[in-house]
Design a protein that fits this description.
This is J domain-containing protein. By secondary structure, this protein is mostly helical. The chain has a domain of about 50 residues. Helices cover about 90% and strands about 0% of the residues.
């Protein structure tokens, strides 16, 4: 009986080893299939990626050209805006020199009216200066 149980145990060990060996072979076969499938698929995907990247580069170059044109246009506008700026600053200073309420005598009858007018126009001049 002891020999019989030893035989059963030995048969179980052989069966377990056989199952493990089959699983190992199956795992290697799956890896090989993945590798072959990857080799078959890569050139096509690589071609698609290359075509996509070329299309992306063309669209980006068109976008870069449009942005360069916009920068050139804005530089021209800035140059034109800076040209009248000194004249505007001189006009603003002259307006302040002539009409600022601090330059009026305290007892002038039209002082409140001139203060209100100065504040209103000064706000407009500041808005023009800020917004361009």
């Amino acid at each position: 009986m002891e020999a019989q149980s030893l035989g059963i145990m030995l048969a179980g060990l052989v069966m377990a080893a056989l199952v493990l060996w089959l699983l190992h072979l199956l795992r290697r076969a799956v890896r090989a299939l993945r590798g072959w499938a990857g080799l078959l698929r890569r050139p096509r995907l690589g071609g698609l990626r290359l075509a996509y990247s070329r299309a992306l580069a063309r669209s980006e170059s068109a976008r870069a050209a449009a942005l360069a044109a916009e920068v050139a246009r804005l530089r021209v506008e800035l140059r034109l805006a800076r040209a009248p700026e000194p004249r505007f600053q001189r006009a603003k200073r002259e307006f302040a020199r002539r009409f600022h309420p601090d330059r009026l005598p305290r007892r002038t009858p039209d002082r409140p009216l001139r203060i209100a007018l100065f504040r209103e126009y000064w706000a407009v001049l500041r808005r023009i200066e800020r917004d361009g």
